[in-house]
Amino acid sequence: MISLVDGYLGRIMLDCQAHLTGAVADYIPELAAVDPGGFGLSMCVHDGHVYSHGDSAAAFTIQSISKPLTYALALGRRGFATIDAAIGVEPSGEAFNEISVDQRRRPKNPMINAGAILAASMLLPQEPTVSSDTVDAAFADVVEFYSACAGRRLGLDERVYASESATGARNRAIAYMLVSFGALQTDPDAAIDLYFRQCSLQVTTDDLAVIGCTIANGGVNPRTGRRVLDQAVAQRVLSVMTTCGMYDGAGDWVTRVGLPAKSGVGGGILAILPGQLGIGVYSPLLDEHGNSVRGVDTCRHLSTDLGLHMF
Ligand code: DON
What we know:
Radius of gyration: 18 Å
Strand content: 5-15%
Number of helices: 12
CATH class of the largest domain: Alpha Beta
Number of strands: 7
Structural class: alpha+beta
Distance between the termini: 28 Å
Bound molecules: 6-diazenyl-5-OXO-L-norleucine
CATH superfamily of the largest domain: DD-peptidase/beta-lactamase superfamily
Shape: globular
CATH topology of the largest domain: Beta-lactamase
Helix content: 40-55%
């Protein structure tokens, strides 16, 4: 059975191998240095077994796939009422780094940068100045939570973190815009630092598959048996991933693949079949929305072939 499924994943990857179009993210200079040919696929099923093929052990930075996790952590720490008052749940139809808010001056959802930066800020004391020790403590909490979802200790890619910190003017602009609207209540530089760090955590497609299966499982990691998030939080995260996870490509994704998902400019995609499985794909060449070209293609093939579309 195991080699049968591994062989099947290999065949799907072969079908998608030819689609070497797109471009690596280069607005974070360190991301431009990755091997554009990297390609990995993993699937974690409800008993915790992980099937994988290709570069499934290659480490890459989680980038925006961190957003549903930090949103989940913020919901758990601060509660639904506080987070919903601060961050909307509507698809934006805009690029991930758009500088925009809704009519209530909230970020439109937690999957775009504005909402993700605000979600990270909710893990800090709501004070105008925050010490670097406090950011360290919040980051330790983030690492602990992401690691519990993945079932192993995740580490920081220092070079990508330094690279994004040195070039992150647009995200700083978003944070300061949120301050000017009264939406961000803490030190914007501390919030941005925490956000840059969470984006620079390293994962493999095996990790993404386990993280996905943990959320699919209502918050219980299928490998460790540990509950890491509440059922209601898992349900909310899956809902927002379905409508907003692929940014302005979300409609096309939901129509063709039919799974809650989140992409990252590191080249990863996390896709989830609620109640069933988690899928992690890695291929760093991106389309115009910032989504992995071969990652999207692979998920389309998998969904069609295995009948994973939810609707
Ligand atoms: O905020 C940024 O620019 C990055 N650290 C993350 C962006 C990202 O992954 C967008 N998703 N595809």
